[in-house]
Each structure stands twice: as C-alpha cells, then as structure tokens.
Amino acid sequence: MTKSTRRRWWWTLWTLLAVSAVGIALFSAEPYVVADVERNRIPLDPEVASHYLSIAVHAIPSSLALLIGPFQFVTRLRVRYPKVHRIAGQVYMVCVVLGSIAALFAATFSVSGFSVQVAFFILTAAWLYTLAQAYRTIRRGEVQLHRVWMIRNYSLTFASVTLRIYLGLGVALQESYLPDLTFDDVYHASAWSSLVVNVLVAEYFIVHRLLKPLARRKRITGVTPAPTPTDRGVLVGAGGSAEDGSGTEDGVTVSSGPPGARGPE
Length: 265
Ligand code: HEM
Hints:
With about 260 residues, this protein is an all-alpha fold. The chain contains 10 helices and no strands. The longest helix has about 40 residues, at about 185-220. Mean pLDDT is about 85; it is low at about 230-260. This is DUF2306 domain-containing protein. InterPro entries: DUF2306_membrane. It comes from Nocardiopsis codii. Keywords: Membrane, Transmembrane, Transmembrane helix.
C-alpha cells in the first residue's frame, strides 16, 4: 500500500470515528444538559433518589471526553498546537475521572441486571487504570507508551458508541428474526460486546501499527533500532518531561515513529 493510500485510509477511519463520537456525545448528553428527566433512556430505581443524578453526572463529562478524544490523536493538531493538546488532555482526564466515579454509582443502582453491572464495573476499573498509566507515562516523557495507553483508554470511552450501535442492531435483529429475545438479552450482549470487541480492536491496532513496524526494523538491521524521540517510551522508557512542551512531547513534532503509527496527520 502506498503512503498516500494509507493516509487516505487513516483519514476515512478517523472521520468515521470522529463523526460517530461527536454524534453520540451530543445525542447522549443533551437530555441531561437540559435536565429533562422525562427523556431519560434507562429505567431508574424509584427507591434511589440520586439515581438520575448519578447518570446525569456520568453522562455529561463522559460525553465531553468522547467528543475531545478523536482530535487528540491528530498529529498535525498536536504538533501545531501543543498547548491546546495539553489543555484538552487535562480536560479529558478530569472528565474521565468524574465520569468513572459517577459510573460506579450508576452501575451500583442499575436495575439492568447483574451481568450488565459487572460489565460496567470492569469497564470503570479499566477506564481509570488506562488513564492513570497514560498520565504516568507522559509525566515521564514516554511519548510512545503514552500513546499506547491513550489508545487503550479511548477504545473504552468509545465503548459508549459501539454499545449503542450493537443495541440498535440487536433490536432490529430481535424485531425481524429473533422475536424470542428480550430487550434485556440484547442489552446484556451489547454491553459485554462493546467492552470486549473494543479492547481487541485496540490491541490489534497497537500490535500491528505500533509494535510490528518496530520489530521489523530490528529484524532488518539486526540491532535494536536507535530510539527516535517518538520511540523512546517503547524502546527504552527514557526520562524527560513533556510538561513544559520542550521535552519528548515535541518528539512528536519530529515524528519519525514507525510507519503508520502516527494516526491522521
Ligand atoms: C467507558 C466507561 C463507561 C462506563 C463504565 C459507563 C457506565 C454507565 C452505566 C453503569 C450506566 C447506567 C446503565 C444502566 O443502568 O443500565 C451508564 C449510562 C449512560 N452512559 Fe455510560 N459509561 C461509560 C462511558 C460513557 C461515555 C463515554 C458516554 C458518552 C456518551 C456515556 C454516556 C452514558 C449515558 C448518556 C447514559 C444513560 C443512558 C442513555 O441515556 O443512553 N457513558 N453508563
């Protein structure tokens, strides 16, 4: 595949990702932003007064994180406006932390069933863990590792999009071919699938787009490739701070990472 074909592919994929993320974020957050309780889309526990509140406090920052995410992966934006990247990253982090804490309450009060609750608890733990790793690595200046952890983290944020796609497909399937299925069956299967499939896709991307090109370079030259600024995190875990904008975050500007590893430019 030529470089320009690959670039076109990336843009197409990124556009699909961004459009669906922005669409679902706006659609999901709107009823909670205007506090329209009537338009709440999931069943509430009438005995828990703060159930609606926990979902609203979860939905609004989570939607903002979903909205910000795709733009953080665009190399050109990151290079031209490193300060914007840093501030948006901080806002994203705060949103994920708030969204996760509220998700713990929402999952605890959920009347959707034990299996869905377990899926959401696992999702919350993974969401926080990958965020903590992404933060830890960028504080150490390990840009490539930061990118790996952010891909993992955003794949979990994006579970909110795939969950809704699976729900739509599941309901259509139930109405046309599988009338014995209940909505709960579809919801449980969708919640688990959105978690598992997104994790698998993220890992596939990381291995094939980030790690394989590095391994190939090592095989061709017979030696471990000299770390470029962008590789540092993966290869040697070098130190240095990205916080002042002069450290390895600027390594992204040099952008000599493995082919295809940089995302849309
Ligand atoms: C990735 C980690 C996430 C976890 C663990 C999580 C967890 C939850 C839980 C437990 C509920 C209540 C479900 C029920 O009672 O059946 C819920 C609902 C909801 N979540 Fe999330 N969520 C996550 C990400 C997101 C994101 C990124 C968005 C942004 C769109 C979002 C938007 C919503 C909305 C809007 C609801 C209310 C249901 C609806 O109106 O469709 N969540 N979430």
